[in-house]
Structures are given as C-alpha cells and as structure tokens.
Design a protein that fits this description.
α7 packs across α8, α7 packs antiparallel against α10 and α8 packs parallel to α10. The protein has ten helices and two strands. The longest helix is centred in the C-terminal third of the chain and has 32 residues. The chain is mainly alpha-helical and about 220 residues long. It has a single domain, classed as Rhomboid-like fold (Up-down Bundle), CATH 1.20.1540. Strands 1-2 form a two-stranded antiparallel sheet.
Length: about 220
C-alpha cells in the first residue's frame, strides 16, 4: 500500500492544485483575492502572450472557475492519470504533463488568433493536458477499453481518435462562426503532445528490445 501511495502522489498533487486555484477564483469574486492576479496568471490568450504573461501558459492549465468544469476534468484525470504515472514513473509523468499543459495553452492562443481571429479569447482548464494524457494512454494500452459518455466501451485508441475527430469538427464549426464555447484548439494541442510522446516511447521500447536481442 505504501508503494501505491508514492506512485499516485503526483496525480493527487495536481488535483489538489486545481482545486486550490478553483477556490482562489471563488474568493476573487468576493474581492478577497486580487481578480487581476487571477486573470493575469490563470487565463491564457494570444493577447496575454503579446503582453508577456508567459506564466499563464502553465497557470491556465491548472485553472477552473466553474464547478462542473473542474469536477469533470479532475474525474477524468483521476481515471487515467494514476495508470500512466505508474507506467512512466513520477519524473517522466510530471515532465509530460507539464509539457502537454504548455503545448495545449499555446495551441489555444495560436488557434484563437490565426484561425478564429479572436486574439483576446481567453481560456482556462486542464482539458488540453488531459487530452494529451488520454492520447498517451491509448498508445500505451491501445486495446484497453474506455467508456464513451460513461457507458459505451470502445478500444482506447479508437476512443482517442473519436475525441480528436470531434475536436476537429468543433474547431471547424467555430471557424465558421458557430460551435460551442469549448477549447478545441487546446484539446488538439494537448493530443498532439500525447501523440508525439507516445510514438517516442514506443520507438524507445523497440530500440531496447533490439539491443536485448543482440545481447542474447
């Protein structure tokens, strides 16, 4: 049991940080925490990058200001995160999660400016990094079943492709002036980070197998 607690520490820490930032947003609404501090460091947009607020690339990925948003994201993170952390090890997992967070935030900023033509469109939430986590999980365990809408079991890799397809469709709709207020650009950026890292991990495993065969 002690080993499991060590393995899951990072996921729990990330969940705790997200909850703490959510509470900070609540207090900022009553004036007990500076609202400008929250918007400067926990919201990302292309305009924020132009103003040099680069810390928002990371802070926004740990930031939620709606209960349903934070609850759904942390539920999914707690579902996939511990398994991936146990597989990669704490150091690699943390490195991947932070990179996926930054890439997803940067992707939102670029998409909102160059595709949606809205450089001041703000975004926040862990869903971009979590999209990367799900994509990585699907490459590590492609035949493992995941539940679509919580009820439909499908192979993990097929499910990840379905999510990517939905985000591409949603982004296309937004580019035409419609769609839902969802950060499809962030999701796709995070998924791209998961895809690249997952391919690299599989290539690394293949090289190790070949070296082991040569030694035997």
């Amino acid at each position: 049991m002690r080993t499991n607690r060590r393995i899951f520490t990072l996921v729990r820490l990330i969940i705790g940080i997200n909850i703490a930032v959510f509470v900070a947003w609540l207090y900022s609404g009553s004036g007990e925490i500076d609202r400008d501090l929250m918007t400067n460091y926990f919201l990302i947009s292309f305009e924020a990058l132009q103003e040099g607020r680069y810390l928002a690339l990371l802070g926004s990925a740990f930031s939620h200001n709606m209960l349903l948003h934070v609850a759904l994201n942390l539920f999914v993170l707690n579902s996939f995160g511990p398994i991936v952390e146990m597989t990669l090890g704490a150091r690699r997992f943390l490195g991947f999660y932070l990179v996926a967070s930054v890439v997803s935030s940067l992707s939102h900023a670029l998409v909102s400016n160059y595709i949606l033509q809205e450089p001041n469109l703000p975004a926040l939430g862990a869903s971009g990094a979590i999209a990367g986590l799900i994509l990585l999980f699907s490459l590590l365990f492609p035949k493992q079943k995941i539940l679509i809408l919580g009820i439909i079991p499908v192979p993990a890799f097929f499910g990840a492709l379905l999510f990517i397809g939905l985000d591409l469709w949603g982004l296309s709709a937004q580019a035409k002036g419609g769609g839902l207020p969802i950060g499809h650009g962030a999701h796709l950026g995070g998924a791209a980070a998961g895809l690249v890292y997952g391919i690299w991990l599989r290539a690394e495993a293949s090289r190790r197998e070949k070296l082991d065969d040569l030694k035997s």
